[in-house]
Write a structure and sequence with these properties.
The chain is an alpha+beta fold. It has three helices and eleven strands, in the order E-H-E-E-E-E-E-H-H-E-E-E-E-E. A hairpin with a 3-residue loop joins strand 4 and strand 5. The radius of gyration is 17 Å and the shape is globular.
């Protein structure tokens, strides 16, 4: 599938939606499954895949310009690889019911965006907004929940751009950091989004085992 000598072009994003093997439960099993999966992509034996953990325990490809992010849901594991850009991914199940607490991390305009949808679409729309927020915050290095209310995830008229909370210590004149957010097509009942630090020229979403890839 992927040429190991030039696996990903610059500013090219690949997102893989991988069905989780329940036998590989737990962090150790998921790590082994990820290494095996990358070995298949790169046409390398598992022991030669240059995968390691960074100081925060996140996976990274050692000695590569390709960044990797992983997010396991109960049913699928989303693996994002971006050439020449930092990347983060978020995937969540769509809630069956919405209560007032579910709307707390969202602004008035985001709530209106959800309320305007047909009733059967509201839960999916809220879940998609949340995955955009979470992927953006993960990319920035901020906490998962604390600053969610400061992230405007309505990207329809901003070419996918999400403004991130400024880093601590940044001067008032500094431009706010930006994430480029891409919604990932997922199976019914799931929502997923990917955030990158640079705008991507091409975005591919793979349902593993399917051919050909779906262009997002």
């Amino acid at each position: 599938m992927v040429d190991r000598h030039r696996p990903f072009a610059e500013r090219e994003l690949h997102v893989f939606s991988v069905r989780l093997d329940r036998r590989a439960a737990g962090a150790r099993g998921r790590w082994a499954a990820l290494r095996a999966f990358l070995g298949q992509l790169m046409d390398l034996p598992e022991r030669e895949v240059p995968l390691r953990r960074d100081v925060y325990g996140r996976p990274e490809l050692e000695g590569s310009s390709v960044d990797i992010a992983v997010c396991p849901d109960e049913r699928r594991q989303f693996v994002a690889l971006a050439g020449g850009s930092a990347v983060a991914v978020s995937g969540h199940g769509v809630p069956s019911l919405l209560d007032e607490e579910a709307f707390l991390p969202f602004s008035r305009s985001e709530r209106l965006f959800v309320d305007e949808a047909p009733e059967e679409e509201r839960s999916r729309r809220l879940a998609q907004l949340w995955t955009r927020k979470e992927a953006s915050l993960r990319l920035s290095g901020h906490g998962r929940l604390a600053l969610a209310g400061e992230v405007d995830a309505l990207i329809q008229h901003r070419e996918g751009r999400v403004l991130l909370p400024p880093a601590s210590g940044a001067g008032e004149s500094a431009d706010p950091p930006v994430a480029y957010v891409y919604d990932v097509p997922a199976e019914p009942g799931l929502a997923a989004s990917v955030a990158t630090s640079s705008e991507m020229r091409r975005v591919f979403v793979w349902q593993v085992g399917d051919r050909p890839p779906v262009m997002a």
